[in-house]
Specification:
This protein is mainly α. Helix 4 packs antiparallel against helix 5. It is elongated, with a radius of gyration of 21 Å. The termini are far apart.
């Protein structure tokens, strides 16, 4: 860990490999090696090799699979990323599952939305991501915000509104979500929403006086 703090990625990777050689049964060491190599400039090839090797020893490890999926996503191998990430999120999809994998679901959602143009699968995976991000309110809020935009484009105004409300229930001071929701409500031009729009615009001015939407909110 010390070389990591000092910015010496190669030194850190060498120490991690020593740890693995001394005790190959600790999956934590493999995860830390993967993190170091993924953070290294130009370290994608070494990181992929290390992660795939780790998965031969721990084939069902969700964290290792998610890291490999992230690497494949980063290097734009989207079909490979989908295959790996769907395996990584399989257990987290089941009703009543104790496992959760919001990161994996979020990457899948982005791939289906941006690369595959598959709105249904994008919505499905982003919904899982949002619902499983309860440990981080701001992350959940951002994902619900993205979901709302997808529903708005799809023409499902009720679902769009419902998810923007969820975004602000998760984090009432999230400037982008506030801005996007105000724009949505103004576009609807329903007189019943006038007070809600004022309330949200006021909140935006309070929490983001230099935000991108400040002129519009004022």
């Amino acid at each position: 860990k010390r070389p990591v703090f000092e910015g010496d990625r190669d030194g850190a990777a060498a120490e991690m490999r020593k740890a693995i050689a001394m005790n190959a049964t600790r999956v934590h060491y493999r995860i830390e090696l993967g993190k170091v190599l993924m953070a290294k400039e130009g370290g994608e090839k070494d990181a992929e090799e290390a992660l795939r090797k780790a998965l031969t020893a721990f084939p069902d490890n969700q964290k290792l699979m998610t890291m490999l999926g992230s690497l494949l996503f980063k290097t734009k191998r989207f079909d490979d990323a989908i295959n790996v990430l769907e395996k990584a999120t399989k257990n987290a999809r089941e009703a009543g599952a104790k496992q959760r994998n919001p990161e994996g679901f979020y990457m899948l959602g982005k791939i289906f939305r941006d690369e595959k143009k598959d709105q249904a699968k994008a919505i499905e995976n982003l919904t899982f991501a949002a619902n499983q991000s309860f440990a981080n309110a701001n992350v959940a809020s951002n994902v619900y915000d993205e979901l709302s935009t997808l529903y708005d484009v799809k023409g499902d105004k009720g679902a769009a509104r419902g998810n923007w409300e969820k975004a602000l229930n998760a984090d009432s001071e999230n400037p982008p979500a506030i801005c996007h929701f105000v724009r949505f409500l103004r576009k609807g031009a329903d007189p019943k929403d006038a007070e809600r729009i004022k309330e949200l615009a006021k909140k935006y001015v309070e929490v983001a006086p230099k935000g991108e939407c400040i002129g519009e909110m004022r």
